[in-house]
Amino acid sequence: MLGERIVGTVMGGYDGHRGWLYSLAVDESLRRHGIGTRLVAHVEHALTGLGCPKLNLQVLSTKAEVRAFYEALGYRADAVISLGKRLDALADPVPAG
Ligand SMILES: CC(C)(COP(=O)(O)OP(=O)(O)OC[C@H]1O[C@@H](n2cnc3c(N)ncnc32)[C@H](O)[C@@H]1OP(=O)(O)O)[C@@H](O)C(=O)NCCC(=O)NCCS
Question: Which CATH superfamily is domain 8-72 in?
Answer without folding.
Answer: Gcn5-related N-acetyltransferase (GNAT) (3.40.630.30)
